[in-house]
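Final paragraph of the annual report: two paired records, presented back to back.
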Amino acid sequence: MVQIGSHAERIDIPSLGDECYRRLKDDIVNGQLDWGTKLNVVELANRFGISRSPVVKAIDRLAMDGLVRVFPNKGSFVLIPTADEISETLEASEILATSLYRLAFAKNRADMVIDLGQLTLPVKQKLEQRTDLTVREYFEYERDFQQILCYYARNDRLSQLYQVLCAQVELLSIHSLTGEQLEHAVYNHAAVIEWLAADQPNQALKGVSKQIQTTRQRILAYLASHEGDFIYR
């Protein structure tokens, strides 16, 4: 059984650059640093009480992750996605997600189904009790779900690529998610788990693809209706 948040070789005291990267990434994918926000190195260094060097390194990593866009002589900004970037990110996410499901299903279906079910059940029960699920709570659940999937797929290269894409999807999704859409996503996960448990992997993969395609359409619709609202400032 996978232990959520655990690692084989835990670093108890991360480097300043790693910690700065983690905090900035959290702020970006959770919407605290909005699309188009400039990442001022001096201000961030003062905020974290560190030198500029680890901040610069963290921003460089975020740019490599596709969460930050760097403009020469202008600075670094939280990404404002284009329609093409949204489509490409979700297409890549669908390919990697379905590949990981296939691998995990083939290698250890039974344990994966148990762990995903145990993770999803309390979230589903919360929704059934008509308790609202916040975007932050949903993203935390989604990250744990992805971690279990990657654990049982047993392919580090695919998992690393997928987790980078998942962070990009969070950034893209932050403005367009509603309570109803969060609920639909959780119930879709529950359905996928049921199909996996019933030894119906093709049906499960269709459910995964449908959810990702729905996400893509939702984000594109939001971008089209808010054209010009976000600028690099």
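The closing record of the year follows.
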Amino acid sequence: MFKALKIILTLALCAFILSASDCYSDYENDSKVWGYKPVYTNDLQEVFNVLPQQPLRRPGKIYVYQNKLFINEKSSGIHVYDNINPESPQYLYFVSIYGNNDISIKNGILYADQGPNLLTLDLNSINADSLRVSKQDGIFHTYGYSEALPPAEDVYYQCPDFDLGFVKSWELDSIYYRYACHN
């Protein structure tokens, strides 16, 4: 009799644990939160572009090359200034490189990461109507979420899936909690 009671209590405890975890799991899987969803692209022109002046939000490295000043904008691209008068640099344009976090300049070539890819810009063509750009895919294997974060902090967002392409922008929407990241 004691053995039968032990079996019944064990089965009841197992049933309770399974049913409780099922309810919690269903709640987590079906609930939605307000957050950002990534908009993907595989078109290089959509993630690399020359644009008019953009505000400095998250500046990174600063380089001076000849009479130009380059300021990296984390996750976004490069601000380019005419630096003939270093006391008063004049804004020229913004080179939008989505996923860009680092730049370097050597021998007239600007090197920039674009997520997992490496872009090279020939600075001798910088005054031309079109920049000479080359791209090598998959150079950086450490591309992670920090390179493609939504435009706000302390928010939920759908974790990017880089197999779907580059994150070119974000849209505010309700997202499933089970797919949400938080920054």
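The chain has a mean pLDDT of 77. This concludes the annual technical report; the extension proposal builds directly on these records.
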